[in-house]
Design goal:
- The protein is α/β, with parallel strands linked by helices.
- The chain has 17 helices and 8 strands.
- It has 2 domains: 169 residues, Rossmann fold (3-Layer(aba) Sandwich), CATH 3.40.50; 185 residues, Up-down Bundle (Dehydroquinate synthase-like, alpha domain).
- The protein has a 6-stranded parallel β-sheet, with helices on both faces.
- Helix 5 crosses helix 6 and helix 8 packs across helix 13.
- The structure holds fe (ii) ion.
- Fe (ii) ion binds next to helix 7.
Amino acid sequence: MESVRFYLPTAIFSGPGCVRKEAERWLLGKKALIVSGAQGAERSGALGDVTETLKTHGVAWAHFAGVQANPDVAQIYVGAELARQEGCDFVIGIGGGSPLDAAKAIAWVAGLNVPQASFFRIAPETTDAALPIVAVPLTCGTGSEVTPYAIITDHGAKTKRNVSAACLFPRVALLDARYLESLPVATMADTALDALSHAIEAAYSPRATRFSEALCLEATRLIAPELVRLAHGDFVNRAQLHYASTIAGMAIAQAGTGLVHAMGYPLTYYKGFPHGRANGVLLAGYLEFMERTCPSQTARLLQAAGLRDPEELQALVDAMLDTAGTTPEAPSEEELVRFAREPLRLDLVKKYRAMPSPEEVMDIYRTGF
Ligand SMILES: [Fe+2]
């Protein structure tokens, strides 16, 4: 029997009304810093549930609203300064990946005295440094509510970078799928593709275990039929996608992401593609590439998705983006050549099971467009 490690210190409460019902579980201090985007927290009803619960239990709060997509280090330091000035002793992130990752990074920086220029060099071993984090996800993609990662834009390196530390695992995740009812279809499609890419990349990771692989295959099995419904413009089971994105997050918390995320970051930084869409267009090309070195794992993933081959996945992604009206504009050949050089420098690919050549990276980009 192999030795397996599975570490997940996040308490998960799920179901309609869980924010109010589980109040005793997530009131982690005397004053909260709520971190959210501009609209989603209020529109979804999550912000109202959180603030009503805080009020009922006599817990004060400050609100850092308006976290932008792909938050950068400057935003993190503004939020952390607010947390310090207001004397907040825990952080509540409400939103998709950007607000949740910002909340986690703010909780970390607020508990440390590190200059902004050194942010990406904060040692992961600062395990007790972060203020306790509560995560309320409002999309069905990021999985950030159960991971030790925060993805922050690094303008110096002109890309997004992953910071990782055990203290970035939220203490509590509150999953109420009713908050997804107001989510625009295009955002749902993009974030579902992010969740699928988490499931697929983690399944190929050298750090994959029996536990993480089971989560990857189950997430893939649940997400694929919803992509078909999205492609047909049919009713989508949002609760299913919400659940699947969290278990895919649990998988990357153990096994990490890989080439698709590394290749997607330049598409987001330079071309403005939403994160999930950037990953989604690359998934079929990635499966084709991995099929050569890991044919049995590729067969398992395709079987879980109910798909014959990577071409069928590409057709599904194309149809889905077409229905959502979000077909991305293809980058030029020169841009792709430049992007193809970037992911190869990233550590997460260097440690990966199959190291692609620059030509193979180009092939994956070309398959997506
Ligand atoms: Fe992602």
